[in-house]
Amino acid sequence: MLEAAQLMGAVLGCLLYLVSTTEHVDEVAITELWTDEAAHEASLQAPGVGELIGRARPVIAGMSGRSVLTVLGGKGLPTA
Questions:
Q1: Is residue 33 part of a domain?
Q2: 68: three-class secondary structure by DSSP
């Protein structure tokens, strides 16, 4: 997933991509912030992303706790 974070560095619509561990030894949490859903969808076509997803899929047990948020404001957002 750290490779994915590196790939997202070149994706304009990706504002944040964090890879974290949790209190569970075999669990990784990914936090993503995108300009919009279209930017996220477009990122799946970025060079190397499809191959990386294919390699990661066998070790992904699930996506529990997934939330999609609509950010209304706050510190850390890019100014328009």
A1: yes
A2: coil
Whole-model pTM? 0.77
Inter-CA distances, 8 with 25, 54, 55, 61, 66, Å: 25, 16, 17, 22, 19
User: How many distinct structural domains can be found in the chain?
Assistant: 1
Closest CA to 19 of 36, 38, 33, 32: 32
Question: Which domain covers residue 33, as residue numbers?
Answer: 2-59
Query: How far apart are alpha carbons 53 and 8 in whole angstroms?
Result: 13
Looking at residue 7, which CATH number applies to its domain?
Answer: 3.30.70.100
Task: Match 């590196």 to its residue by tokens.
Answer: 6
Look at residue 40 and tell me whether its pLDDT is greater than 90.
yes
